[in-house]
Specification:
By secondary structure, the protein is an alpha/beta fold. Helix content is 39%, strand content 15%. The protein has 2 domains: 21-157 and 351-370, Nucleotidyltransferase, domain 5, CATH 3.30.420; 165-348, Nucleotidyltransferase, domain 5 (2-Layer Sandwich), CATH 3.30.420. It contains 11 helices and 10 strands. The strands form 2 sheets. The protein has a 5-stranded mixed beta sheet. The structure holds zinc ion.
Length: 371
């Protein structure tokens, strides 16, 4: 997935470490599990960890973070993940021998088995990361089987399981997560669709019909990946900075964002939209249409039960979130039979979704299915 969407999944900037109050940190006080899995979400600044029991209960109900130190290179980052594992085991009081598997998720691009792209990635820019087998290195270090997913896929898997619970394997879903980029994932019968090269669910780089989406005279948007008119070229923070805001500022002379540094201005659009600013609403209307057109494509080759939207665009005041979701729904052209059975929903607990999805994938491996 695009590195940017990964950031939205991690939401490092919004994360707050919690004080140690064990009595409040356990989500459940169920009988001692026979075994557990641990989920480790590796972000640009922090690792977030969780524990999932054999019976499918999370033992942690909030963010538990440690520094990820990815900028210090692979060796130190692997040691930091091992420290995160130790810390979450200590916190929950589960014996280490009970940990059957660890789920790891990181921003991409990486292979289906957790080998970082040979060209590196935003979070893995040091040359030591290029082509690094992150999953394998962690597995060797901790001597516990490690299951890998990219963070968009992990969040999509969590959203699906949170929505359906015990009936997850009977349903399918697609999740579009808007961050710096547009990431997400596809879940079929409760399992992530990874693809042959680990590139399935790269929703941001699916071309969408642009006709009727843009205003008169608005330049055709371009994506960081080199494509013209893909979903991420409209529905992402980088799209606001690169494509949408420069155009819409020409339509609103004297707007407060005129003359503001583009990167800073792009980050202010969401809060302006929440307050009803007309320019900002034009931008999010176009993003909703782009996601709706992406979902229309998904409806024709996947026909999923649920269309999830996640990221900063729905981590907002309820009025704006409902407006945005309703605009996505209105822009998704479903057939009558599909309208009767399809649902639109928000990816929940986004800051914890990566770790939780990684844990769900690990648990699925342990119980003999593929996650
Ligand atoms: Zn693209």
């Amino acid at each position: 997935m695009q590195e940017g969407a990964a950031r939205s999944v991690g939401s490092e900037q919004s994360r707050q470490s919690q004080p140690s109050q064990p009595s409040q940190q356990l989500a459940h006080s169920s009988p001692d599990p026979t075994w557990v899995v641990v989920g480790l979400d590796n972000g640009g600044t922090c690792n977030n960890a969780t524990v999932l029991t054999d019976s499918g209960e999370f033992l942690v109900d909030h963010l538990v973070e440690n520094p990820s130190r990815v900028n210090d290179g692979p060796e130190i980052a692997v040691a930091s993940l091992a420290a995160s594992l130790d810390a979450i085991i200590d916190l929950t009081g589960v014996p280490r021998t009970h940990v059957r598997a660890v789920g790891l998720d990181t921003p991409g691009p990486a292979s289906a088995d957790g080998i970082i792209s040979s060209k590196g990635a935003t979070n893995f820019s040091e040359v030591g990361w290029h082509g690094f087998d992150f999953r394998g290195a962690l597995e060797t270090r901790i001597a516990i089987p490690v299951v890998y997913n990219n963070d968009g896929n992990a969040a999509a898997l969590y959203a699906h399981h949170a929505y359906y619970g015990d009936r997850a394997s009977e349903h399918s879903s697609v999740a579009a997560i808007v961050g710096t980029g547009l990431g997400g994932g596809v879940v079929e019968a409760g399992r992530i669709v990874k693809g042959a090269a680990g590139m399935a669910g790269e929703l941001g780089h699916v071309h969408i019909p642009i006709e009727g989406l843009l205003a008169d005279g608005q330049p055709t948007p371009t994506c960081n990946c080199g494509f013209v008119g893909d979903a991420e070229s409209v529905a992402s923070l980088s799209a606001i900075e690169r494509n949408l805001l420069p155009y819409w500022l020409t339509q609103y002379p004297g707007h407060p964002l005129a003359g503001v540094d583009p990167r800073s201005a792009a980050r202010q659009v969401r809060s302006l939209a929440e307050r009803g600013d007309p320019l900002a609403r034009e931008i999010f209307e176009q993003q909703a249409r782009a996601i709706g057109r992406l979902f229309t494509i998904a409806s024709n080759f996947l026909d999923p039960n649920v269309y999830f939207v996640g990221g900063g665009v729905v981590e907002t005041a309820p009025e704006f979130r409902e407006w945005f979701l309703s605009r996505v729904r209105a822009s998704t052209a479903l057939r009558g039979e599909q309208i009767d059975v399809a649902h639109f929903a928000v990816v929940p607990d986004l800051d914890m979704a990566g770790a939780r999805g990684a844990a769900i994938a690990a648990r699925a491996i342990v119980i003999g299915t593929t996650g």
